[in-house]
Amino acid sequence: MSKYRPGLATLALTGVLGLHVVPLVAASDGLAPTHRCRVEGMPNELQCGSVLRPLDPARPDGPMIEVHYLVVPAMARNKQTDAVLMLAGGPGQSAIDLAPTVMSRLSRLNNRRDLVFIDQRGTGRSAPLQCADESRLPVQQSIDPRQQLERLRQCSEDLAKHSYGDMRFFTTTVAMQDFDAVREQLGVPQWNLIGASYGTRAALEYLRQFPQKVRRTVIDGVAPPDMVLPVSFSIDAQAALDALLKSCEIDAKGPTACANQFPYLRRQWSDLLKGLPRQIAVSHPVTGKDERFELTRAALLGLIRAPLYVPALASALPAAIDGAANGNFAGLIGLSGALGNRKSNRLAMGMHFSVVCAEDAPRIAGATQAPGADFGQVDADMYERVCAFWPRGQVPLGFYSVPVASSPVLALSGGADPATPPRHGDRVVKAMGSMAQHIVVPESGHGVMGIGCMRDVVYRFIVAATDAAALPQDAGCATRVPRPPAFLPTQAPVGKGVQP
Known about the structure:
Structural class: alpha/beta
Mean pLDDT: 89
Distance between the termini: 38 Å
CATH class of the domain at 19-132 and 168-225 and 398-479: Alpha Beta
Low-confidence stretches: 1-32
CATH architecture of the domain at 19-132 and 168-225 and 398-479: 3-Layer(aba) Sandwich
Number of strands: 12
Shape: globular
Largest sheet: 10 strands, mixed
């Protein structure tokens, strides 16, 4: 599902969303006027619409933007009126782009409920704040923090030229007011919110502003408003990496076990860090061109973080680290790009920094938690440099508080998540009180709704007739899922566990 992408991997959205509009008609079932449309990756004809919103809420007579949305109508005639709203991640992900990816997880809910996907302001077709596509840049340019900084500076200057280019007005608080305007236009009395990653922060902010307009809330990979994202990057990625190295060390049953294949993994990782910067040779994962450049510590940490998001990818990290320790960085380069090349995971980086610079960056200096031993201050320093020149919006003080829940909330966390691990969900559920439940899937990564039986848990939670029947939910089917075993290439890795 949606992701907080690893720090500063600039994954700009490319092109349009593939919305093919057909003649305007009035939507059925009493919805406000929308038009029939088709979305790339979705087989059926759908309904699209937009709501006109002031760029600056305090100036309703000032510049306006269109906030676009997609409605997947309920299949049954006797549908329920409480639609399901999917809040995308990032910050910077397009919800409409995400729709084809998540439909299989929401199909049962779609039997009797409309599914709604809103491109949050700054993403998709809603006044997009997109930086240049970097997918084909040389590897050195794409991972070099100094060059990233200069590209982002240029991006901020280019975005400021748009009619909607005042990036102070792309905060989560303002965006959730847009979402409520969509609710009013569609005539939905209450939403069932499903937020993933940054979408959980958006859901919590919608709950804070409009508690009576929410029937049920699912927050998957909880990113609370007070987490100070660049600081958490270091702490949580370190914990996930340490857990991966430890799991390899204790997996010693059989000749193909991780500890037997890679007996010096932790030392290899330590020596890799100590040996930087260094010259390396790789093939570009998209263009296939051979490149030679200097690998820095910050760049290596960025490469290692990305696959930690997905346990199936993380299972290949021991072999990739072993290969890198012996001069072959192809595995790490390939794994680091495995998520970012998906269209639904690409981010509008202008919106990303507009949110983080307003909501997280001002709190970096006051953060008291010690950073990760390996990851250190790399992300915090980079975000502070970007946010020094990025336009910064105002955030109300109430934004950083989590309200007591007045309707059922189901929080989901993956124990191996390098971005939003259970410690954040624990804090939020404690603050929300007795109407919130926290389910932790110990060996899952970033987002647990993709686990087969978890979609049934979410379905039961939302369709329950009463609040009392909605909670608690039993997720034993998922909590017993084991960590994937270490991936072994069909060819022996370059180092094959050779002692450094």
